[in-house]
Amino acid sequence: MVKTVLCLRLFYKGKPLDIAKPGRGFKKKLHIGSNKHLFWQVLDPSFPDNHLFVFEQSGQYYMQLMENFKIECFRDEKPIDMATLKSANLLSGNKLKLTHDLTGTIVLAPDWIVRFEYVEPWIKLLSPEEKQIISQYSRRADLTSVERFNRNMVLAVGFLTIAFLAVYDLALKPRFDIDESLEAHVERLAHKVDTSDLFPKTGSDQMSGQPTPPQNQAQTSAQVTGTPTSGPTGSTRSQAASQFGFGDFDPSQTAAPQTFAVTRAEGIVAATYGGQQGGPRGSGPGSGGPSGPGTGRGVASSFDPTAIPGGSEHAGPLSTGQLRPGTQTTTAPPGGSVQRFAGDLGRLVPTGRPVDRPASAAAAIGQFQAQGVTVIRPPDPAVDPPEVQSEYQNIVTNVRGRQQQLVTQFEKDSNVKSMHGTIEFTLYINDNGTMGAVDIRPISGEFYDEFISNARNIVMKWRFNVKGKRIYPFSITFRK
Q1: pLDDT confidence tier of residue 158, bands split at 50, 70 and 90
Q2: What is the pLDDT of residues 24-74, one digit of tens each?
Q3: Please, are residues 442 and 349 in contact by the beta-carbon 8 Å criterion?
Q4: CB 331 within 8 A of CB 432
Q5: Which are the contacts of 396, defined by CB distance < 8 A and separation ≥ 6?
Q6: Statement: the pTM of the whole predicted model exceeds 0.85
Q7: Of 90-94, 115-119, 204-208, which range is least confident?
Q8: Three-state secondary structure along 21-57?
Q9: How many alpha carbons lie under 13 Å from residue 270 in its C-beta half-sphere?
Q10: Cα–Cα distance, 428 to 314 (Å, whole number)
């Protein structure tokens, strides 16, 4: 038997792990070591990280040995010692020449062994019957007439589709020449709206030609709605919707409107004409100014634009109905409820740190810290008992169900002054389920101290079902 291929076998504690041959595992060099990226990794801390084990030189394979390697060789199935290997020029220094008649075992480490030998490569010899079967089934079968027809039809339909799309895109596709931008197109459509329907004139205005004085000029509240349900604005939306092709668009069907009444205190300046004391009523056919110790005469309906202002000016607070920019006004719906808000929300609170706590809240938080109560965390089903998981879930569900109270209060207060951002609430729950304290920390945005106080009062009324003192944090993002 002619041995032509070098075969290396790796054993660990007497059990075979792998086989390496030229072309399988290595080509001209084989590295072993404790490095995990090597083909053969020796899991021994005393073994070097990377060691060149077998290499080819001038068509001959050599094995590079280390001092701690133990070697046992056989030549023509007879044992041969180290002295004989050196005398036969098979071992030179630490290089062992692997000849065809040499076999052996190399001990790399106490549990790691490598055996080397030359073997004849295994070649599968096929019988004539096997060769005939392989030649018969190693090619595709001939197509039947039906398969050829289906193939030709698919190719023809695909080609016709591509040709039709090309012709349509080049010759039949309609061309749209856009001679204006989108903004110009929208502006042109807006000019088509008839403004005479938006601001109808009364009979008295048309006859006299004088503007009608505004009614309820001294009102202290202005009623606003999120979406007007009737009037000129609603008709404008319907006309605009029809212009843009939205069909029968009804803005009142999007959501139920919510009605608010907001009062703001602002200072105004009123200039008077003349220098005499004003009377209880103005002189003239129109209505005069209010009675009181004013410094001017009541101005009548006939206004003289050429008059030169004189006298003094009086500044004072007046409740106005001015709203935030973008808010639309309308009258209150018949029989509908109106939520009224008035006043000032105070000052902005700083973000990134807890707001000032009441004395009672600071004392309660100090008791929780003194007793070592920690923040509850989501339980681990594999470790925590079912009662702990149930208690945590009850707290989470209770908080989520009551967050709408805070959102409702935010919507009320933000109609007075605009607010937005994220707030973190830390609940300090007593063992009887009542609230001991709440720590409020604005994380981002802008909030006023009156809203923070209202939110604290809401949270302090919450109740929970717990079996001891608990600390639970959660956060809410408020948007207007």
Answers
A1: very high
A2: 888 889 999 988 888 888 888 888 889 898 998 888 889 988 888 888 888
A3: yes
A4: no
A5: none
A6: no
A7: 204-208
A8: EECEEECCEEEEECCCCCCEECCCCCCCCCEEEEEEE
A9: 14
A10: 53
Lowest mean pLDDT among 32-36, 282-286, 346-350, 375-379: 282-286
Residue 325: CB atoms within 10 Å: 6
CA–CA distance, 480 with 419 (Å, rounded to integer):
7
Q: Is the dihedral of CA 214, 216, 220, 223 positive or negative?
A: negative
> 360: part of which helix (H) or strand (E)?
helix 359-370
Rounded Cα–Cα distance for residues 389 and 380 (Å): 8
Alpha carbons 133 and 186: distance in angstroms, whole number: 77
Q: Number of C-alpha atoms within 13 angstroms, CB side, residue 22?
A: 17
Percent of the chain with pLDDT over 70: 66
Work out the angle between the directed axes of helices 449-459 and 386-414 (0-180°, nearest 10): 140
> Which residue is listed with tokens 């931008």?
181
pLDDT for residue 167? 93
Give dist(CA 472, CA 464) in Å, integer. 11
What the block records as the tokens of 98 is 């692997």
Which distant-in-sequence residues (6+ apart) come within 8 Å of 350 by Cβ? 442
According to DSSP, the residues that pair with 19 across neighbouring strands are: 9
- DSSP SS3 for 351: coil
Is 45 within 8 Å of 81 (Cβ atoms)?
Answer: no
Q: Which DSSP state fits 280? A: S
Residues 263 and 342: beta-carbon distance below 8 Å: yes
Query: pLDDT tens digit string along 300-324?
Result: 444 555 544 444 444 444 444 555 5
Handedness of CA 398, 400, 405, 410 (dihedral sign): positive
- Burial of 75 (C-beta count, 10 Å sphere; 0-12/13-18/19+): middle
Question: Which two three-digit tokens encode residue 305?
Answer: 């634009």
What are the backbone angles phi and psi of residue 147, rounded to the nearest 5°? -65, -40
Query: What is the number of other CB atoms lying within 10 angstroms of the CB of residue 31?
Result: 17
CB 55 within 8 A of CB 30: yes
Cα–Cα distance, 73 to 99 (Å, whole number): 11
CB 345 within 8 A of CB 417: yes
C-alpha torsion 143→146→147→151, nearest 10: 130
Q: How would you class 119 by CB atoms within 10 Å of its CB: exposed for 0-12, middle for 13-18, buried for 19 or more?
A: middle
